[in-house]
UniProtKB/TrEMBL annotation:
Residues covered by the ABC transporter domain: 4-234
Protein name, UniProt field: Sugar ABC transporter ATP-binding protein
Species for this entry: Psychromonas marina
Keyword list, A-Z: ATP-binding, Nucleotide-binding, Transport
Lineage of the organism: Bacteria, Pseudomonadati, Pseudomonadota, Gammaproteobacteria, Alteromonadales
GO MF, one example: ATP binding
Residues of the full protein shown: 1 to 238 of 363
Length: 238
């Protein structure tokens, strides 16, 4: 587990500042949701942490370690996106095992780790299937399995359920919650969906146009929205 510290982060693309001031600390083991409308800077902020986007100014720390210049693969994070990007020619087992093989782990150790993840995610009966033989929800669980076996210090999710239909989204939301309870890994979860934020988050960071509009627990932001934007976006206009 780990703490993630964003210190006065800014990001511009060409001359346009899309993250204007992001100052926030995610505590050890916490589940934090970045919530806001499309284009407010959620993914860009997450991608700077993941090392997929450079930081224009400010610092990001994972625990005591300044990671601004650390290579993406050395940041000890695992990210799950809305498009699952599974390897189509590999089985579920091989998809989950892939990162461990690259690490040079033995077949026996890989087996242990893959089966452990498959057990938690209830994927055991599907290990020999190919992605095209799976439902959307099953594919999303494989993507989570791939992230899990890397035992990252921090999980990052960018709209992981957006491609699923409403019913499955509800089911997967519950599974996300159970997974977090089991693993307790520090998690940052990006979404524009208020219900996902309300059900999943320990704390919600509400973003609007590159700024933090409010930080609080689901109850706090719902009952005491800091401003008009939050009230309207959360759907509880005062
Ligand atoms: P969100 O995830 O909240 O929908 P993003 O972080 O993806 O928002 O985008 C924030 C703003 O930055 C948007 O206006 C988007 O068009 C812009 N943007 C994102 N990535 C790039 C890029 N690579 N080049 C130029 N503009 C970008
Ligand atoms: Mg986004």
């Amino acid at each position: 587990m780990a703490k993630v510290i964003f210190k006065n982060i800014k990001k511009s693309f060409d001359d346009v500042e899309v993250v204007k001031h992001f100052d926030f600390t995610v505590e050890d083991g916490e589940f934090v949701v970045f919530l806001g409308p499309s284009g407010c800077g959620k993914s860009t902020t997450l991608r700077m942490l993941a090392g997929l986007e450079s930081i224009s100014s400010g610092d990001i720390y994972i625990d005591e370690r300044l990671i601004n210049k650390v290579d993406a693969k050395d940041r000890d994070l695992a990210m799950v996106f809305q498009s699952y990007a599974l390897y189509p020619h590999m089985t579920v087992y091989e998809n989950i095992a892939f990162a461990l093989k690259l690490k040079g782990m033995t077949k026996k150790d890989i087996d242990v780790e893959v089966l452990k993840a498959a057990n938690i995610l209830e994927l055991e009966p599907l290990l020999n299937r190919k992605p095209k033989e799976l439902s959307g929800g099953q594919r999303q669980r494989v993507a989570m399995g791939r992230a899990m076996v890397r035992t990252p210090k921090v999980f990052l999710f960018d709209e992981p359920l957006s491609n699923l239909d409403a019913k499955l989204r509800g089911v997967m939301r519950e599974e996300m919650k159970v997974l977090h309870r089991k693993l307790q890994t520090t998690t940052i979860y990006v979404t524009h969906d208020q219900i996902e934020a309300m059900t999943l988050a320990d704390r919600i960071v509400i973003l609007n146009d590159g700024y933090i509009a409010q930080v609080g627990t689901p109850t706090e932001v719902f009952q005491r929205p800091a401003n008009k934007f939050v009230a309207q976006f959360i759907g509880n206009p005062a």
